[in-house]
Design a protein that fits this description.
Number of helices: 18
Number of strands: 10
Largest sheet: 8 strands, parallel, barrel
Structural class: alpha/beta
Oligomer: single chain
Radius of gyration: 20 Å
Shape: globular
Order of helices and strands: EEEHHEHEHEHHEHEHHEHHEHHHHHHH
Strand content: 5-15%
Number of domains: 2
Helix content: 40-55%
CATH architecture of the largest domain: Alpha-Beta Barrel
Strand order of the largest sheet: 3-4-5-6-7-8-9-10
């Protein structure tokens, strides 16, 4: 397993995301405990030591408390979890409950969860950041950071207002071409803030070959589409930990093989970037997160986040879609159908109709 230094802590470059654990009907927020426990035991055997959870990843903290913390030496793993202000306004109680659910007396990596343009003031005006900084001083938090789905402007402002140990961003080759991933990466690199990477396969959208992938397949017949995406991210030195929401042993085996091997070379980079056009055409809503639509929205909806959720639903990823929508302070049901957003959309997306479909989802 490949390891890197994250502010003096040795962490595996491949991190275990716990949002997409195997599910069953009932136990632990729907988690299939036996299958998920087997995943964790295998990650431990293979040397993965970074485990990412969150309050809104239903059952993930309770699961890690039982399957990881109670079974393995505390020095053999690092836990990351997050505070979500929109769902848990009492940050003191929320943090105490997280320690209890995880069965720990400190959390290695703690994050403000899912900053957006609309949630910025909620995080900056309620005292939560100052509280968690005190928890760090008391040794209950190892390193303190934040994850962001906000515009580059808001992420920059948030990054500059406090002393952050690390940050977590959505980063993949598709968003490098069609979104703001390049600007976001450079923002944090310039400030010396190390990164944990989420969505390196963009919620599964990059886990299959789209369009003509003949040369990619012939060059590397043993590489999966997901492996190409991971290897692209591995090229970036400030991408310290790369999270994968692994749901089964096949995904784990493929990822470990990838992280025991090299990153992409120059020709391979050309090929994956060339594939972005076909991937974009395959999406239900080809949103590039330019955010031209958001300032004109009278309901204050973070439309790019809603677009991501719509694409997740179109792919059958209901849990991922609901997680995306949970970040919204003003959900799609608040859309008034004025059409101002569509007038500003360079992609010509019928945004009001998508908001209506999201609002009517089961």
């Amino acid at each position: 397993m490949e390891y890197v230094d994250l502010n003096g802590v040795k962490v595996s470059r491949l991190g275990m995301g716990n949002m997409r654990l195997p599910r069953s009907i009932a136990k632990l927020g729907g988690i299939d405990y036996k299958r998920a426990e087997r995943l964790i035991s295998t990650t431990q055997e293979l040397g993965i030591n970074y485990y990412d959870a969150a309050i809104v990843y239903l059952g993930s903290e309770e699961f890690l408390g039982k399957a990881l913390v109670k079974r393995y030496d505390r020095d053999s793993f690092h836990i990351a979890t997050k505070y979500y202000a929109l769902g848990h306004p009492d940050y003191r109680k929320a943090f105490e409950n997280q320690l209890r659910r995880l069965k720990v007396d400190f959390i290695d990596f703690y994050l403000i969860h899912g900053l957006t343009d609309s949630s910025y003031k909620t995080y900056t005006n309620k005292g939560s950041i100052e509280y968690f900084q005190r928890m760090k001083e008391q040794g209950k938090i190892g390193q303190f950071g934040f994850s962001t789905h906000a515009s580059v402007k808001t992420s920059r402002r948030f990054a500059d207002e406090h002393d952050w140990d690390f940050a977590q961003i959505q980063f993949n080759y598709y968003d490098w071409v069609n979104g703001t991933a390049k600007e976001e990466y450079e923002l944090f690199e310039q400030r010396g803030i190390p990164l944990v990477i989420m969505e390196p396969v963009r919620g599964g959208k990059l886990a299959k070959f789209v369009g003509d992938a003949t040369e990619m397949r012939s060059l590397q017949p043993d590489w999966s589409a997901a492996s190409w995406a991971m290897r692209w991210v591995k090229r970036f030195d400030n991408a310290k930990v790369i999270l994968s929401g692994m749901s089964n042993l096949e995904q784990l085996t493929d990822n470990v093989a990838t992280f025991n091997d090299r990153a992409l070379n120059a020709r391979e980079v050309e090929l994956v970037l060339k594939s972005c056009g076909a991937i974009r055409e395959s999406m239900a809503a080809p949103c590039t997160a330019c955010r031209y639509c958001t300032e004109s929205c009278p309901a204050g909806i973070d439309i790019p986040v809603a677009m991501d959720a719509f694409n997740e639903l179109a792919m059958g990823n209901e849990s991922a879609a609901e997680d995306q929508l949970s970040w919204l302070e003003n959900g799609p049901e608040t859309c008034v159908g004025c059409g101002a957003c569509a007038q500003h959309c360079p992609q010509g997306i019928d945004i009001p109709s998508i908001m209506e479909k999201l609002a009517k989802r089961p």
